[in-house]
Design a protein that fits this description.
The protein is an alpha+beta fold. It has a single domain, classed as 2,3-Dihydroxybiphenyl 1,2-Dioxygenase, domain 1. Helix content is 20%, strand content 36%. The chain contains seven helices and 17 strands. Strands 5, 6, 7, 8, 9, 10, 11, 12 and 13 form a nine-stranded mixed beta sheet that branches. The chain has an eight-stranded mixed beta sheet with strand order 2-3-4-1-14-17-16-15, with helices on both faces. A hairpin with a 2-residue loop joins strand 3 and strand 4.
């Protein structure tokens, strides 16, 4: 979740250093996830969460094999919009990847979610209950008043049909991006789900992730804080959860939020052999102005490349914890 927070002197200095060169990325274009049945997932995201399908494609061939690192692939992808933000749902018709891990916990480092902003938490939660979604939190949680930078934020974790974590999020008037509070027309007053505020990823080391996302890609730190207590434990369904949270943003699109678990320390590492056709797979797509330059800078950083090079004006690499990141030239 986005928490406005005091930016420490060290983070501020890092941001100044990153500002010395032009950012490699200018926007978060979309957040992608692999699904087992595209039609079922499109129906879920459309009917339950009010996303609109804007396109669907089916591709195969060597260029996509070299981009995604999956030989012999054929995949269907639906691009879906909520407000001004996009997700991409991909079903691999071939080859089939591994099924979802039912025992995934919110502190495992392959954890990723999208945070969907709602205009009314009570009504949204009741709607999700009517549609029999699987709880990942015990119920909606209101973050406590002592937590200055998150006080009054309401949140709830649940899962989609393939077990991917999702979050609904409601901001009080003094929190969150101003666009969530601005009236965009009479029809918007009745909208229950407004858009995507950010995607959150579990990481092992905030400083290492800052070097990748801030210093190399060029995102800017928007805030940081520390969350703990019974509300956070019940939100994440992790007993004793204490998190260092850092929010970053590109010039446009949803934010990227780091969740570093200071406690407990039993979160499992990202599977080293994970591939794009596995059902735990998420992929964040950034837009950049020069993908060749991005590839060179990421090579200097010694990023793990998924793609064999620049393919279809894109590259895919792994961040320090294994999360897939795609950079596509605008």
């Amino acid at each position: 979740m986005l928490r406005r927070a005091f930016i420490s002197f060290a983070v501020f200095c890092g941001a100044l250093a990153a500002a010395d060169h032009q950012p490699l990325v200018t926007a978060v274009d979309s957040i992608g996830l692999t699904v087992s049945d595209l039609d079922r997932s499109v129906e879920f995201y459309s009917k339950v969460l009010s996303f609109e399908k804007v396109s669907e494609t089916e591709v195969d061939g060597p260029e996509y094999e070299h981009l995604e690192g999956v030989f012999g692939l054929r995949m269907r992808t639906a691009r879906m919009r909520l407000g001004n933000e996009f997700i991409e749902l991909t079903e691999f018709l071939a080859p089939l990847g591994r099924p979802a891990l039912a025992e995934t916990k919110a502190n495992d480092r392959w954890f990723q979610h999208i945070a969907i902003v709602t205009s009314d938490m009570g009504r949204a939660y009741n709607w999700l209950r009517e549609n029999k979604v699987q709880h990942a939190s015990s119920g909606p949680q209101r973050l406590p008043d002592w937590n200055k930078y998150a006080a009054g934020i309401q949140a709830f974790y649940f899962r989609d049909p393939d077990g991917h974590f999702l979050e609904i999020l409601a901001f009080p008037p003094d929190k969150g991006n101003s666009k969530w509070h601005e009236a965009q027309g009479i029809a918007d007053h009745d909208r229950l789900f407004l858009g995507i505020d950010h995607t959150a990823i579990v990481i092992s080391d905030t400083d290492a992730s800052l070097r990748f996302y801030r210093d190399v890609l060029g995102l800017q730190v928007a805030g940081e804080g520390e969350n703990y207590g019974p509300e956070q434990e019940h939100l994440n369904n992790v007993f004793g959860a204490r998190l260092r949270i850092t929010s970053l943003r590109a010039a446009a699109g949803p934010g990227v939020e780091f969740l570093e678990y200071l406690a407990p320390h039993d979160g499992r590492p990202y599977p080293p052999d994970e591939k794009a056709n596995d059902l735990i797979h998420w992929q964040t797509r950034f837009l950049g102005t020069d993908v060749t330059e991005a590839a060179l800078e990421l090579q200097k950083f010694r990023s793990a490349f998924v793609s064999t090079g620049v393919v279809e004006r894109s590259i895919i690499v792994r961040d320090p914890d294994g999360h897939a990141v795609q950079v596509t030239q605008q």
